[in-house]
Amino acid sequence: RTLQRLSSGFDDIDLPSAVKYLMASDPNLQVLGAAYIQHKCYSDAAAKKQARSLQAVPRLVKLFNHANQEVQRHATGAMRNLIYDNADNKLALVEENGIFELLRTLREQDDELRKNVTGILWNLSSSDHLKDRLARDTLEQLTDLVLSPLSGAGGPPLIQQNASEAEIFYNATGFLRNLSSASQATRQKMRECHGLVDALVTYTNHALDVGKCEDKSVENAVCVLRNLSYRLYDEMPPSALQRLEGRGRRDTAGAPPGEVVGCFTPQSRRLRELPLTADALTFAEVSKDPKGLEWLWSPQIVGLYNRLLQRCELNPHTTEAAA
């Protein structure tokens, strides 16, 4: 609606003029300039290239945290279109300290802004060479500001997301899904990010409880859990690995199959022959209330995956990830 209202003023403006308006002292002109860039760069590759050459990227970044919220909305909306399917513009945004400014903007309690910011982050995460940097710079704040509150983790159970909150959460989980397919270092950062895995598990459990397992955010969440489970045993922190192995697995390296003691083989013959106290830590690990990355190996997560396999009938991506 805002673009329709402003479009009557687009007849006498071009891209160079719009970029100049971004530097005006009048917020109305800044809104007009950003709105024109947003409109012009929606699906025009040549316009995106021209806007970059005119230095639109650094000027828009400076408006992300403008005192006028309407300017903020249009600046982030313009950037979202500007970087879509354009690797050079994504890189330009990152080089202009754009990630830091986006995370500052994410603290604003405005759904339109938060939709734009999470959409930008999702677009950025499709570039393989940016994934590790994004994981390093964004995970903690994104979890604290979006994932935990909108999943119901760490607070009252989520009753219902409104349409904007659902889109914000969907963008954020799409961002995580892209990151989770990156390097071992990025997977480790994600597993160890306080609250991240809990939020995904809580949201998926809630979606199952209210009959929304076909939800696209559930698909994203379960795909992230699947990706974070990849090579889990090899990539697990040494402290966690030591807890899970009890005293048997490393001591019996090279032992015949079925004789290794550990969390993953609780019914092995050797375990049954040992005194109960010998593997008390292992049993404690299995029976404890999982938190954080412990969910990835806890027997309790099997119940969640089972429920998805039983109830999700329409989304093959979700069931494949659960399997």
What this model shows, in words?
The protein is an all-alpha fold. It contains 20 helices and no strands. It has two domains: 96 residues, Alpha Horseshoe (Leucine-rich Repeat Variant); 161 residues, Leucine-rich Repeat Variant. Helix content is 64%, strand content 0%. The longest helix is centred in the middle third of the chain and has 21 residues. Its main location: other.
What would CATH call the architecture of the largest domain? Alpha Horseshoe
C-alpha-based Rg, rounded: 24 Å
CATH class of the largest domain: Mainly Alpha
Question: What string gives the helices and strands in order?
Answer: HHHHHHHHHHHHHHHHHHHH
Largest sheet: none
State the shape: elongated
Stretches with pLDDT under 50, minimum 5 residues:
257-267
What do we call the CATH homologous superfamily of the largest domain? Leucine-rich Repeat Variant
Residues in β-strands, percent: under 5%
What structural category do the secondary elements indicate? mainly alpha
> Total number of helical segments?
20
Instruction: Give the averaged pLDDT, no decimals.
Output: 87
CA distance, first residue to last residue: 44 Å
Tell me the number of structural domains. Answer: 2
CATH topology title of the largest domain = Leucine-rich Repeat Variant
Helix content: 55-70%
